[in-house]
C-alpha cells in the first residue's frame, strides 16, 4: 500500500512538472514574440500585460498538446535511468522540440509548420526552457519512486 501511494504521488509530481514546463515554454515563446515585434517593458501598456495573462496559459495548452508524446518518452527514460541533472533535461527539451518540428514538417498542409530559422531556434529554445523548468519542479527527484528504501547488504570481508 505504501508503494502504491508513492507511485501516485510521483505521477502527480510528474504531471505538475509537465504543466510548469508547458507554462514556462509558453511564456518564453510569448516574450520572444513580443520582443520580435519591438515591444519593450518600458512601453508597458496595461492591455498588453493583461493579454499575457490570457495568452500564456492558452498557448501552454498547445505546447502541452504537441509535446506530450515525445516528452512522455523522455520522462519515462529519465525516471528509469534516474537522471537528475539539469543539463539532461535542457537537452531533452531541445530534443522534444526538435521532434515536434520534425513531425509538423512531415505533415502535409500543416498550419503549424515552422520554416524560418529564427522561429526554429525559438521553438528549440522554448523546449530547453521547458526542460529546465521541468527539472526545477519534478526532475530533481527522478527515479526516486522505484529505488529501494534499503539497499541489500553483502557479507563483510570476513566472509560470515
What would the average pLDDT be, to the nearest integer? 83
Q: How would a crystallographer describe the biggest sheet?
A: none
Spans of at least 5 consecutive residues whose pLDDT stays below 50 are none
Oligomer: single chain
User: What count of helical segments does DSSP give?
Assistant: 4
Helix content: over 70%
Please report which band the strand proportion falls in: under 5%, 5-15%, 15-25%, 25-35%, 35-45% or over 45%: under 5%
Order of helices and strands: HHHH
- Gyration radius, rounded: 20 Å
Cα distance, first to last residue? 35 Å
Number of strands: 0
Query: Per the principal axes of the C-alpha atoms, what is the gross shape?
Result: globular
How is this structure best described in words?
- Helices cover 71% and strands 0% of the residues.
- The model has no long low-confidence stretch (mean pLDDT 83).
- It has helices spanning 2-36, 46-81, 86-106, 117-137.
Strand and helix map with partners:
Elements lengths: L1 H35 L9 H36 L4 H21 L10 H21 L23
Helix pairs in contact: 1-2, 1-4, 2-3, 3-4
Briefly summarize what is shown.
The chain is 71% helix and 0% strand.
What key attributes describe this structure?
160 residues, mainly alpha, 4 helices, 71% helix
